[in-house]
Design brief:
85% helix
Length: 110
Amino acid sequence: MAVSEEVQLVSFQIIASVGAARSCYIQAIDCAEQGDFEGAEKLIEEGKEQFRSGHDAHFGLIQKEAAGESSEFALILMHAEDQLMSAESFGILARKIVNVYKKMEDCIHA
């Protein structure tokens, strides 16, 4: 059975958005490692916006199912959901790692 065009498009939107979010989070950690905390914070905010876009696309599918529209299984959607969860984890860890770098910087200059 072929996957509907809608599910394919939403899946690719999720994958692209959360992939960009994950990249921002990794770059934020790199900035914090170099002491650029302003840059790190900007990248985390950008990552949050990208993640929100992917999350909103996914939530749209959930709303349709809740409204009674049947949903189909699609490997591409399962992959998109996996990427969504991975990006969420990266975001949580990036914020924590940036904070650790900030505290280390404070200790060095204290």
